[in-house]
Amino acid sequence: MVKVNENYLKLEKNYLFIRIAEKVNAFKASHPDATLIRMGIGDVTLPLAPVVVDAMKKAADEMGVKETFRGYEDSGAGYDFLRQAVSGYYKSFGADVPMDDIRINDGAKSDCGNLVDIFGDDNIVLVTDPAYPVYVDSNLMSGRKLVYADSDESNNFAALPCEEGYVLDGVMVHPDIIYLCSPNNPTGSVYTKEQLAAWVAYARAHGSVILFDAAYEAFITDAALPRSIYQIPGAKEVAIEMCSLSKTAGFTGVRCGYTVVPSELTATASDGTQVSLKQLWNRREGSKFNGVSYPVQRAAEAVFTDEGLKQIHENIRYYQENARVIAETMTALEIPFTGGINSPYIWFKCPDGMDSWAFFDKMLNEIAVVGTPGAGFGKNGEGWFRLTAFGDKENTIEAMARLRKMLSK
Amino acid sequence: MVKVNENYLKLEKNYLFIRIAEKVNAFKASHPDATLIRMGIGDVTLPLAPVVVDAMKKAADEMGVKETFRGYEDSGAGYDFLRQAVSGYYKSFGADVPMDDIRINDGAKSDCGNLVDIFGDDNIVLVTDPAYPVYVDSNLMSGRKLVYADSDESNNFAALPCEEGYVLDGVMVHPDIIYLCSPNNPTGSVYTKEQLAAWVAYARAHGSVILFDAAYEAFITDAALPRSIYQIPGAKEVAIEMCSLSKTAGFTGVRCGYTVVPSELTATASDGTQVSLKQLWNRREGSKFNGVSYPVQRAAEAVFTDEGLKQIHENIRYYQENARVIAETMTALEIPFTGGINSPYIWFKCPDGMDSWAFFDKMLNEIAVVGTPGAGFGKNGEGWFRLTAFGDKENTIEAMARLRKMLSK
Question: Exposed (0-12), middle (13-18) or buried (19+): which is A405, by Cβ within 10 Å?
Answer without folding.
Answer: exposed
